Amino acid sequence: MSSQLPAGDVARLAEIFDLYADTVSDGAKCMSPAAFARATSPPVLDTSAFFAVADTEARGVLTKDDFIRFQTLLRDADAAAKLSFSAAEPETASLRALVSADPAASSYLKDRPKISYAEFAQLIDASRAARIRHAFVAADPQGSGTIHIDQLLVIARQFVPLEPTSPISQRLALLSESPDSQRIGYPTFLALISLLSDPSRIRQSAPATSLSPLETDVLNTLASGERGAESATPESISNIIDTCYSALQPVPQAEHKPKPRTGLMEVMFQAYNFAIGAVAGGIGAAVVYPIDLVKTRMQNQRAAVVGEMLYKNSIDCFRKVIRNEGILGLYRGLGPQLVGVAPEKAIKLTVNDFVRSRFTNKQTGEIAVAGEMLAGAMAGASQVVFTNPLEIVKIRLQIQGEMLKEAVGSTKAISRSGAITIIKELGLVGLYKGASACLLRDVPFSAIYFTCYSHLKKDVFREGERQLGMLDLLLAGAIAGMPAAYLTTPADVIKTRLQVVAKQGETVYTGLTDAARKIYKEEGFKAFFKGGPARIFRSSPQFGATLMCYELFHRMVPFPGESHELPQERAAHQSRELSSQTALFHAGNALRLLHDSGYKFGAFVPSSK
Question: In 3D, which of 99, 104, 162 has the Cα closest to residue 131?
Fold first, then answer.
């Protein structure tokens, strides 16, 4: 029977069995009746009486298969009836006690030594309905068709698990016929009992299709806390369902919640994230650095006439760099780039995750697109403090080969400068030249990028339904980088022009607005998208590789004590939790059915009447 459950549920039940098994039989772990009660009973529900049902071979102990088989039975929608039938069968004399409230059912069983489960289930439903009617009539001696709210709570607790202090109990007065009345009509009473008898009906389907109109009205009133409410939010309805299940706490869990980190552990955790981001960012930067160098040199070309240009296009630039400067020329300026990548990626990823967490709904886990974009924008703004000095040093190193080539044969001597020399020449203020353009580029880039990346993973690659592989993460990161890179190219062009040293005879720019105006006037609108394709080819794979490595490193080298449960694993855990709650709810209904009818396991107890 265990094959009827998902593999994850079977594995979880096996863990519970191993946790509570307290004896050994024939070399295998087993459960005694006491261990079975501990494993299946919350504080308010004693399920030890079901041991005989679970012990199908009457051995006095339960094997793992016995335990899983019993738990499988509990998850059936008609578990209460099946448990009752199993406990009372095969004698119809015992079964008659369960349907004693229905004279016709008792008459049917009178001369039959045995009946089928299907017949029993039908009779038990009718008998339960009869007991509910009898309870209402007994509480309404005047025959008014109504009962007082206090009586409603007492009667309801005979048939459904309902705590007096629960939100449902506190809102029962809203179901009264009028604000001044404290009485509930019979139809509303029936709708309430039916609604609370099986909360899974609310969760499984839309109320409009799974519930009667009056049940829907009762649900909306109890969920919203407003008399006569015509609707209720999904969150409030979910709270009502949870209230129903909370009377029967789920099976004790064997898992351990992580302890809050100490100050030292928090420092180590942030250092761990910093290291992961630095390594991932370094890999991404190194992979695409030659493309970045070509992009920079293309953007720095000032001439509008093709014949005066040093490079015809990106491919021509790539070839000439290799011919004039060698393969290593494609990696000129990589050192400062790698040094700056660590703090840049660390702060960008940290700020984005931090702000996203503040805008994420704690109950649903959802975040609005505006919140996603704002988180990305703040991440982009925060990184400028690191990226602007990095960019200006990198760009000046990248165009050195070009300047040395032009200086050949001239009277002006130009020597190659290192990163330290450039930093000394620029000074602190010079390192932040073009920072406004850097902000204009990085803020929208990150806003677009992180939003697209999140939705590509969730909506296209179905994160949450399966574990994303290397290719999924790489493609999500690369595709998200395409619109982000191209749409922010104008700001990147302006930033490059502001940060490079203008050669003799070239236009000098005094600021962001001045650069934009002069570029448009001298070179036209197309100049703002110079190097756009190269920027896509650089940014797209760089960010794809960076975030792929970042997520994979977190999986491969998890921080000690941290939970790295995947979204689909969390969903599976929530499903198992609901399944466990449902099982206990059914067990409670079965006990209530058996005990209320006067049947005690193993012996018939005559009615006191």
Answer: 99
d(CA 300, CA 416): 19
**CA gap 289, 282 in Å, rounded:** 10
Q: Which residues of 269-293 are buried (b: 16+ CB within 10 A; e: fewer)?
A: eeebbbebbbbbbbbbbbbbbbbbb
Residue type for 124, please? I
Q: Is the CA virtual torsion 49, 54, 56, 62 positive or negative?
A: negative
Cα separation values, 481 from 356, 488, 537, Å: 19, 11, 9
What are 430's two structure tokens? 């010079």
Concatenate the DSSP letters of all residues of 492-528 into one string.
Answer: HHHHHHHHSPPPTTSPP--SHHHHHHHHHHHH-GGGG
CA dist 37 and 48 (Å) reads 5
* H helices present in 225-330, as ranges: 234-246, 263-299, 314-325
Q: Region of 27 please: left (phi>0), alpha (psi -120 to 50) or beta.
A: left
DSSP summary character for residue 562:
-
**Residue 335 contacts residue 390 (beta carbons within 8 Å):** no
Provide the pLDDT confidence category of residue 453 given band limits of 50, 70 and 90.
very high
Contact 225, 171 (CB under 8 A): yes
Helix (H) or strand (E) holding 603: strand 603-604
What is 12-40 written as a DSSP string?
HHHHHHHHH--EEETTEEEB-HHHHHHHH
- DSSP per residue, 131-167: HHHHHHHHT-TT--SEEEHHHHHHHHHHHS---TTSH
Q: Are 149 and 172 in contact (CB under 8 A)?
A: yes
Q: How far is 67 from 61, CA to CA, in rounded Å?
A: 10
Outline where DSSP puts E strands in 46-196: 146-148, 183-185
Report the run of H or E that residue 604 belongs to, with start and end.
strand 603-604
Calpha distance 326→320 (Å, rounded): 9
State the sign of the Cα–Cα–Cα–Cα dihedral 314, 320, 323, 328.
negative
pLDDT tens for 341-378 read 767 777 787 788 778 878 888 766 788 899 999 999 99
Give backbone dihedrals phi and psi of 525, rounded to 5 degrees, phi first.
-65, -35
Tokens 């941290």 correspond to: 562
Residue 23 β-bridge partners = 30
Residue the block writes with tokens 């190194």: 286
The residues near 178 (Cβ < 8 Å, ≥ 6 apart) are: none
Query: Residues 298, 533: contact at Cβ < 8 Å?
Result: no
pLDDT digits (tens, 9 = 90+) for 221-274: 888 888 888 887 777 777 776 666 554 443 334 444 456 667 787 778 777 877
Structure tokens of 369? 């697109």
